[in-house]
Design a protein that fits this description.
The protein has 148 residues and is an all-alpha fold.
């Protein structure tokens, strides 16, 4: 028959063993990170700008859809520009990460789409903060595209 003390000792042992296992797995993860420490993703700034555009664009589209449901269609052109932006920036982010040989050509076209979206979103930025945020993300992404 087990005593209460042996149960506590076993529990303490299991907790300690779990802690050692966690520490060991952390050391392995840190070692793996150290192995790749000098490596950076190609076109990291461009890829990040594209992801930010996609996120802000999706937020803007969701806002436009809410307005549409209430019967307000004043943002229809904005939604169309933003939808183009989201599609294009998704592809741009992937091409940038892959360091595609077609990146410069695609980035040039994407910059134009970003500027078009920015222009449309600026029309609504004073009444819709989401549009302002999208326009700012567009401007930043266009700048990164133009630097390629």
């Amino acid at each position: 028959m087990e005593t209460k003390d042996s149960g506590i000792d076993r529990r303490a042992f299991l907790v300690g063993a779990a802690g050692v296992a966690a520490l060991a797995s952390t050391r392995v993860a840190v070692a793996a990170d150290d192995e790749h420490a000098g490596h950076t993703a190609p076109n990291a700034k461009l890829s990040a700008a594209a992801r930010e555009c996609v996120q802000r664009g999706e937020e803007c589209i969701a806002h436009c859809l809410t307005l549409f449901k209430s019967g307000n269609t004043e943002m229809a052109e904005c939604a169309a520009r933003v939808e183009e932006l989201v599609i294009t920036c998704n592809a741009l982010g992937k091409l940038a990460t892959l360091d595609s040989e077609h990146l410069a050509t695609f980035a040039s076209a994407t910059a134009k789409i970003c500027r078009s979206c920015e222009t449309e979103c600026r029309k609504h930025e004073k009444t819709h903060a989401i549009c302002r945020d999208c326009a700012e993300a567009c401007a930043a992404c266009a700048k990164e595209c133009e630097a390629v």
